[in-house]
Structure to design on (107 residues):
């Protein structure tokens, strides 16, 4: 069974306007750390273009090629564990998640 993927983005913004950024890399890492999601400690090259954060039932990839993070890609390795964490995360941070398969937005 393929792993489910969602994109995290900031909720809000005027209709037709691009969504505001999630924050700086540090802001995003600090926010996700409150939900037990963090780097695994491995040294990664900036040339890779992404930083991978490990959380409960999920991997979160954030881009490292810009100063701010607009979106984060989440790959769920265990939906039953990841989904409640993602719901709390979106509610607490006023973010939303968009299912890449269906296009549905949550949060």
């Amino acid at each position: 069974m393929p792993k489910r993927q969602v994109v995290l983005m900031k909720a809000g913004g005027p209709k037709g306007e691009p969504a505001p950024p999630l924050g700086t890399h540090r802001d995003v890492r600090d926010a996700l750390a409150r939900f037990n999601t963090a780097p695994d400690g491995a040294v990664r090259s900036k040339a890779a273009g992404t930083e991978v954060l490990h959380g409960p039932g999920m991997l979160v990839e954030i881009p490292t090629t810009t100063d701010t993070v607009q979106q984060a890609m989440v790959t769920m390795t265990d939906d039953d564990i990841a989904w409640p964490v993602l719901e709390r995360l979106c509610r607490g941070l006023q973010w939303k998640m968009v299912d890449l398969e269906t296009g549905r937005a949550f949060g």
The mean pLDDT is 90.
